[in-house]
């Protein structure tokens, strides 16, 4: 099927930042390819988009599995012939604990989704964008990717790696018409942070991101998707290798 509209692929599209961004990008005129591990929530995002007259498909995938990543990239190309914008967003949060209590299996789980998942998505989408001679990848890092955050050693390391992957690819592909950027949200009111708050309460520690929001509140997902919308627009055309904080002043 050919399509004159621009094509966006969004991972983690079933919830929080990914869902809000998928809906926003569809409103902006993108045809969307929604990717999530959770079929029910991914299909629900697609339903919400179609209800508003948007277009797209959903592909179930575990972003940490190479064959699943190749499959969602192939499905996008088979359906629409190209990928203009890739919002590489799926991620998970660790069970919060002091560094010496982080279990090896937990470390591996975080690295596998947040780092390998980000890497694999970039790798296979970059092949498509290289053939096109154009494209834009926006990775979701975190304020935990540019500074330390308490009781989150594995998560913080994984998001520093996302920043590293972003900068490396931005440098390598700048002459090939491909831009690569990252956003660093601070605290956003999503299922992910709700699970974080519960695990902190169990451990008796209230992190700065929850207790000392400089705006007195976390962001809502649509305050992140607004920035994603800007990044996906021609207005961001001179940005590559940028690590964009959207944190209500948290890292000041
Ligand atoms: P969320 O839990 O609301 O949504 C994440 C989505 O990703 C879910 O739909 C989930 O099913 C999907 N997902 C998880 N693992 C997957 C996998 N292996 N394969 C495919 N899909 C998978 O979380 P969110 O808050 O919207 O987080 C989105 C991104 O933003 C993550 O990368 C997260 O680290 C980052 N982030 C969130 C915050 C925050 O405060 N919420 C802050 C900074 C960064």
From TrEMBL:
Similarity annotation: Belongs to the short-chain dehydrogenases/reductases (SDR) family.
CDD domains per the UniProt record, alphabetical: SDR_c
Gene3D superfamilies (alphabetical): NAD(P)-binding Rossmann-like Domain
EC number: 1.1.1.-
EC class: oxidoreductase
Presence of keyword Nucleus: no
Keyword annotations: Oxidoreductase
GO molecular function, one term: oxidoreductase activity
UniProt-recorded name of the protein: SDR family NAD(P)-dependent oxidoreductase
Keyword Oxidoreductase found: yes
